[in-house]
Amino acid sequence: MIVVRVAPSDNRPHLAEGRAYKRVGAADVQLKRDEYERLLLTRSRAAFGRQPVVGARYTDLDEERVRWYLAQRAEKRGISAPDGPLPDLLTGLGAVVEHAGQLIPTRAGILFFGRDPQAWIPHSQVRVARFQGTSTIHFIDRADLRGTLPALIDAAEQFIRRNTRLAAKIVGFRRREVTEYPYEAVREAVCNAVCHRDYRVEGASVRIMVFADRIEVNSPGGLPPGVTLANIERKHVLRNPLIANYLYDIFYIEKWGTGIARMRRLMREHGLVEPHLEDLGDFFAVTFYGPGDRILDLIPEEGVTDLRALGLNERQIEALRLMFNEGKELSNTDYRQLFNVSKNTASRDLQALVKTGWVRVEGIGRGTRYRAV
Questions:
Q1: Cβ–Cβ < 8 Å for 359, 320
Q2: What is the pTM of this model?
Q3: How many Å apart are CA 113 and CA 61, to the nearest integer?
Q4: In this predicted model, what pLDDT tens digit does every residue of 281-339 receive, in sequence order?
Q5: Inter-CA distances, 251 with 137, 154, 168, 193, Å
Q6: Rounded to whole angstroms, how far apart are CA atoms 36 and 48?
Q7: Which CATH architecture has domain 123-296?
Q8: Angstrom distance (rounded) from CA 19 to CA 40
Q9: Which residue in 98, 240, 261, 361 is deepest, having the highest Cβ count within 10 Å?
């Protein structure tokens, strides 16, 4: 006797002569249209996250990353860390499945806990670039980011911070700083792109492009079925529910569908226009427009540090204003000529500014210069 066991398919519905059927008792009954569409949506969810990675082994998962995730989940969600062998825990999480008597990582599992996720799913990398000006002609900085999904999100945020501006000025004897963009809003877009992209679209990666006037975050696959630009704040569909669960557990995303509204609110509060959303069919794009030359206008008139209360005199406050607002660097000679003071007085004033932590010294001897940090 030969026994053949066929596991239930995650790729249902299958077609026979162009029609889809279901088993009802001993009969094969053709699916209704709504049943067919529902199975298609279910297939699109399951096909990526829960299917095993062909050729991968349990040892391709990094147990240290699993422990980090479990610790983060326990801390941030206020729950007890689970007990038990890691293979059992990973099975419960949907990160591994049993196949031919062995535990095999799922696609979601390899992306979140893998030692080298891009070895198995190359298009899961995140491509980041900083361009000169407002076009894609000349690169200033670029990278193809690799790693687990949390590592990709963190690395993308670091790249954006490194390639955008932080402005500071002295207002009414007070020092204020402002970032070019609200980083929380941009990080939200990056998290959404990594979480909700269509991973079935091979050869296409999440792209983040930083220009002189804007940041673009492009996610492969467009909007999920049933979601449009008109209802995006009201209708919430998880294209990759298993990945979303993992990211939700460690506070990288929330699952209430409020991310778009939050991005819009953060941009308004920062004094910028709301992000522009565009569904291009094969890509979903979020564009954040920056302040351009108006970046200092984002700083409100209220201050946070009273410079006079720190013991700084009027000369030192004016020197700070020149360094921060106008980007000037000063030598001891420059300081003496500006304020008509002796060399010793200039040295004392400048050293006191260095001690505030807002001014740094560059060069030695006659080449010594003082500039804003």
A1: yes
A2: 0.73
A3: 5
A4: 889 999 999 998 888 778 776 555 667 777 889 899 889 888 877 778 999 999 999 99
A5: 37, 13, 31, 16
A6: 19
A7: 2-Layer Sandwich (3.30)
A8: 13
A9: 240
Task: State the first-to-last Cα distance of the chain, in angstroms, to the nearest integer.
Answer: 80
Q: How many Å apart are CA 213 and CA 121, to the nearest integer? A: 33
Q: Would you tell me how many other CB atoms lie within 10 Å of the CB of residue 204?
A: 17
Q: Across-strand partners of 208? A: 128, 217
- pLDDT confidence of residue 51: 92
Mean pLDDT, to the nearest integer, of 171-183? 78
Cα distance between residue 21 and residue 205, in whole Å: 35
Q: Where is pLDDT greater, at 257 or 190?
A: 190
> Over the stretch 3-44, which tens digit does the pLDDT of each residue have?
555 544 545 677 676 677 876 556 777 777 666 655 565 554
Total count of residues recorded for the chain: 373
Element (H, E) at 16: strand 15-16
> Taking Cα atoms as reference points, which of 208, 116, 119, 95 lies closest to residue 155?
208
Q: Name which of 32, 35, 30 is nearest 15 in CA terms.
A: 30
d(CA 62, CA 42) in angstroms, rounded, equals 29
| Chain centroid offset of residue 233 CA | 20
Q: Percent of the chain having pLDDT more than 90?
A: 57
Give the whole-angstrom CA distance, residue 37 versus residue 39. 5
168 bridge partner residues: 177
The gap from C-alpha 57 to its chain's centroid, in whole angstroms, comes to 29
What residue spans define the domains of the chain?
15-120, 123-296, 308-372
Q: Which CATH architecture best describes the domain 308-372? A: Orthogonal Bundle (1.10)
- Matching CATH topology for 123-296 and 308-372? no
Preceding omega of 220 cis (within 30 degrees of 0): no
